[in-house]
Amino acid sequence: MGKAAKRQKAKRRNYFKHLSETSPNQFKHEWGKRIDSWVNEITKCGGKRYDSCGVRRPSFSEIQDEALNILEACGPGTFRKYGGWTRAVLEPERFLPSYFVTEPGSTSNWDKIEFAGKLHGLRSRV
Q1: CA nearest 42: which of 107, 116, 119?
Q2: What 3-state class would DSSP assign to 16?
Q3: How many structural domains compose the chain?
């Protein structure tokens, strides 16, 4: 991870820590948006380790660890309040990417996305 990425993570952690201390309602709103962004990132990556340009994508574990580390930095009260919810939202996404991996020779995952959505009763995120 480069310097810029480390600075961005530190800035995000400090931002959420500040929000949790000064504006709990705003924290709740911003945390929900961030969780949704992580869910979309997990779903978009589809279990692939690298994007089309060869850039490594974060694994599910790295995303979940980042989320929980931010909550820990916000304090024990915030971690107790949002830690379980965060795990409950992110954990099911861990298993969905296996449905999205494109088979060799295929150019589309739409059939698998549709199947996974029906199988798990989920709405489409696209």
Answers
A1: 116
A2: helix
A3: 1
